[in-house]
């Protein structure tokens, strides 16, 4: 391996320039430059995909736990033939079906959707200083939105469902804003 | 008895994707605007160089609190009165693909550029980046050679820099507290 003489300071510059030209001709330099420039863009895409995956997982698990809350309460109150349907091509939505005696309090069954949601949201609250802890607000907010049709069992007034929709939407948006804000800051630092 | 949800699983997933995407885009736009508004407000000193580790480390040393950051650029204050701010910008920002960012940087009230050279990096590449930075900023350039590594290339580098009319050249060890203090003195003019 021969070393370039120190007395020829421009030699390295010349070499680098001709090397860059060669790279440009072969397209290699372009690829390297593209790789470097898009480093920040890749961070944004990566974080965005991560945020979507977390959100979809949270929503799916919230729906399942909400329905499971109804099913557990139904089982405890002596209902039979309990089944949870998450996806049905005939029905437009998710539902929990059960056969109950007439003396079973319908209000308790309707409100039981939140039974498993509370410990699930609390689990996220206890996460130590990571952005995902704000997903607890999204979980609670999304559960409010899911409770809208259950609230109709409790009252004929449209006031309660309207309050639940507004409260749920605000909570989801606030939770998302906090989660995304903290995620972009802390993952960039990392 | 059936407890139905107001929307299907697919609707829930689509809803959460829409909300999180909206929040993500809104947050990115707001943070970009706030960063550039902040760097236009008061005079700035830019710290840059081909080795982004040095400019970032120097930034962290000079400013105890990082006020804002975007696209790998960090913003902090060298004085408690916050009359002069320091912006560490990776050399890659000056690339041709970052025209949008370059146009924004041109609007800065830039007082000086501390440009850190490193003998361990190909010299031609560093000089090209230096010239690109000179085309962007109409300010005084302060060339600094990182003297941490006692490479023969450092001698070669200072020879080339003198040929390009760069002076005075500061030889500073970026890995020692004294070296970093020296740069602080250059920036604050003390």
* Widest beta sheet: strand line-up of chain A: 1-2
Total beta-strand segments of chain A: 2
Which residues of chain B sit in consecutive blocks of at least 5 with pLDDT less than 50? Answer: none
Give the SSE order of chain A as H and E letters: HHHEEHHHHH
Mean pLDDT of chain A: 79
Give the domain tally of chain A: 1
Low-confidence stretches of chain A are 1-38
In CATH, the topology of chain B is named Rossmann fold
Give the % helix of chain A. 55-70%
Distance between the termini of chain B: 81 Å
Across the major sheet of chain B, the strand order is: 3-4-5-2-6-7-8
Structural class by helix and strand composition of chain A:
mainly alpha
Q: Main beta sheet of chain B, described?
A: 7 strands, mixed
Strands of chain B, total number: 8
- Largest interface, and how many residues on either side? A-B, 65 and 43 residues
Order of helices and strands of chain B: EHEHEEEHEHEHEH
Measured by DSSP, the beta-strand proportion of chain A falls in: 5-15%
Protein model, in words:
The complex is a heterodimer of chains A (190) and B (190). Chain A is mainly alpha-helical and 190 residues long. Chain A has one domain (39-189). Chain A is built from eight helices and two strands, in the order H-H-H-E-E-H-H-H-H-H. Chain A has helices at residues 10-26, 28-37, 39-76, 106-111, 117-125, 135-146, 148-154, 159-189; strands at residues 80-85, 95-99. In chain A, strands 1-2 form a two-stranded antiparallel ribbon. The longest helix of chain A is centred in the N-terminal third of the chain and has 38 residues, at 39-76. Chain A starts with 9 loop residues before the first helix and ends with a helix. The model of chain A is unreliable at 1-38 (pLDDT under 50). Chain B is α/β, with parallel strands linked by helices and 190 residues long. Chain B has a single domain (41-188), classed as P-loop containing nucleotide triphosphate hydrolases (Rossmann fold), CATH 3.40.50.300. Chain B is 47% helix and 22% strand. Chain B has helices at 9-41, 52-62, 99-106, 123-136, 152-163, 177-188, and strands at 2-4, 44-49, 66-70, 73-77, 85-88, 110-118, 140-146, 170-172. The longest helix of chain B has 33 residues, at 9-41. Chains A and B meet through helix 1, helix 2, helix 3, strand 2 and helix 4 of A and strand 1, helix 1, helix 4 and helix 5 of B. Strand 2 of chain A pairs antiparallel with strand 1 (2-4) of chain B, so a sheet runs across the interface.
């Amino acid at each position: 391996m021969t070393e370039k003489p120190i007395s020829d300071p421009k030699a390295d510059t010349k070499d680098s320039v001709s090397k860059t030209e060669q790279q440009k001709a072969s397209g290699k330099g372009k690829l390297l430059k593209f790789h470097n420039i898009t480093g920040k863009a890749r961070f944004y895409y990566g974080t965005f995909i991560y945020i979507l995956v977390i959100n979809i997982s949270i929503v799916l698990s919230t729906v399942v736990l909400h329905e499971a809350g109804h099913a557990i309460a139904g089982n405890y109150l002596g209902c039979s033939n309990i089944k949870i349907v998450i996806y049905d091509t005939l029905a437009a939505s998710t539902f929990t079906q059960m056969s109950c005696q007439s003396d079973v309090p319908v209000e308790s069954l309707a409100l039981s959707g939140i039974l498993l949601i509370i410990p699930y949201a609390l689990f996220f609250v206890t996460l130590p200083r990571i952005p995902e802890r704000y997903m607890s607000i999204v979980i609670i907010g999304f559960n409010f939105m899911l409770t809208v049709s259950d609230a109709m069992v409790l009252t004929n007034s449209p006031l309660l469902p309207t309050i639940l929709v507004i409260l749920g939407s605000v909570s989801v948006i606030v939770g998302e804003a906090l989660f995304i804000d903290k995620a972009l800051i802390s993952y960039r630092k990392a | 008895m059936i407890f139905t949800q107001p929307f299907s699983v697919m609707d829930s997933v689509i809803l959460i994707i829409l909300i999180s995407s909206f929040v993500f885009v809104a947050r990115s736009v707001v943070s970009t605007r706030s960063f550039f508004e902040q760097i236009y407000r008061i005079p700035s000193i830019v710290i840059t160089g081909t080795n982004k580790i040095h400019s970032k480390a120097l930034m962290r040393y000079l400013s105890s609190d990082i006020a804002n950051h975007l696209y790998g650029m960090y913003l902090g204050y060298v004085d408690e009165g916050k009359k002069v701010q320091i912006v560490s910008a990776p050399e890659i920002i000056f690339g041709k693909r970052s025209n949008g960012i370059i146009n924004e940087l041109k609007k800065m009230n830039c007082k000086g550029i501390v440009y850190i050279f490193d003998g361990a990096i190909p010299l031609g590449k560093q000089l090209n980046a230096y010239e690109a930075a000179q085309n962007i900023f109409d300010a005084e350039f302060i060339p600094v050679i990182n003297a941490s590594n006692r490479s023969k290339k450092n001698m070669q580098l200072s020879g080339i820099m003198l040929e390009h009319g760069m002076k005075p050249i500061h030889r500073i060890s970026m890995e020692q507290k004294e070296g970093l203090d020296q740069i602080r003195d250059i920036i604050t003019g003390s």
